[in-house]
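Target protein
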Amino acid sequence: MRQYLALAILVLFTACKKDETPLDNSTAPLSIEFDNIAGDKNLQLNTGVYTNAANEPFSVSVFQYFISNVKLTTTDGKDYVVPQDSSYFMINETDVASHSVKLHVPQADYSSLSFIVGVDSLRNTMDISRRTGVLDPASYSDHGMYWGWNSGYIFVKLEGTSSSAPVDASGQRYFRYHIGGFGGYSTPTINNIRSVTIDLTRAGIASVRRDRETNVHLMVDVLKMFGGSSSISIASNPTVMFGPFSVNIADNIPGMFRHDHTED
């Protein structure tokens, strides 16, 4: 009887131990590269000319966006969430170094990557002392990513010129898309936070190991911002900021991201 009891305890302990071992605790380098493009062309600020879903030509002068709340899922279904304070990044087309997000994560084979495009409501409303690094509004240059008047972050900023845009007060044909809104602090407002989940199995899972840096290469297609669930016309909407129409552009944002390949 004692033998059977000891065997039962051993089996139970083994089963529990297996379930409670989610990942290898030793960490290894992983980078996520955000490669900004326009269709089949590399995105070139100011000089490149592209055509959107409404058949309108345009050039881009500013393209930058927040990536946050990064999570990885292993091939056997276990999640690793990047610690909150280390999970906010701003990708700025003019800053090549910002295109690669550097992480240290547990060794594992990862089949899925997810993140938020934008800044979550908790961090938007947190005391300014907790919003450091890329979240510090005082650190921005001329193209800031924070609405002082609206007390919230701009999640995606796209600016440029187009012959389809009306002539503005300066005599130029500018378009400006500043997409933000986290749902409101005390009363409900627009919520343009969008989640992206990338299936890594189609173009190579991320086998993260200590002896190398694994790189997940994502393509970010600015044309998809104009065409997805909604077709966006520059002529009809040359300036979109904190208003109801911004939701249509926000709904297109997840479609901008696709997995190109993984380098181990």
In short: The helical segments are 2-19, 121-124, 246-252.
